[in-house]
Amino acid sequence: MRPTSGAARRRAIPPCPETAWAPVPLHLHEVTETASRHAQPRAWKRAVRWLVAAGLHPRANTTTLRVAEDLAARMDFVEGLVLYDLDGTAARLDLDRSTVKRHVAVLRQLGALAWVRHGTKRQQRQGRDELLIHHRSVHASRAAA
To answer: Residue 138: in which H helix or E strand, if any?
Structure first.
């Protein structure tokens, strides 16, 4: 291979000045706000593996992949929706609840997940008994548009 001349080097496209990654802004964590499209579990897992392997997020690691695998196993094939199930995911993966929360947040910051519905807890009285009602959070798998 012959060396390139100075003129050839000047004509070459300069490297991108901005190579640093930035997390997806908070307002785009909502499914109604993002331009991303739904992804089916198999394609979503492939995208998540690529995002983690690319090293875009400093906290993304094998635990993130384990959490993603658990979400994908319960994901709807049509719309890519999945119930959060924090306690169940933590139990299945033998992880602390805070660890699961952190890695789901990493997936949202990478743009792989978006909120469809935020869960709530509230107490209602029915006669003498108190009933704790929990509305589960729902996430949607996301892929770049």
So the answer is: strand 138-143
Q: What is the mean pLDDT of the chain?
A: 75
Query: CB-based contacts of 88: which residues, under 8 Å, 6+ apart?
Result: none
**Looking at residue 17, what is its pLDDT?**
46
Of 16-25, 71-80, 100-109, 128-137, the one with minimum mean pLDDT is: 128-137
- The alpha helices in 2-145, defined as continuous H runs, are 6-11, 41-53, 62-73, 86-93, 97-109
Whether 110 and 57 have beta carbons less than 8 Å apart is answered as yes
Q: Give CA–CA dist 46/43, Å, rounded.
A: 5
CA distance 28 to 25: 6
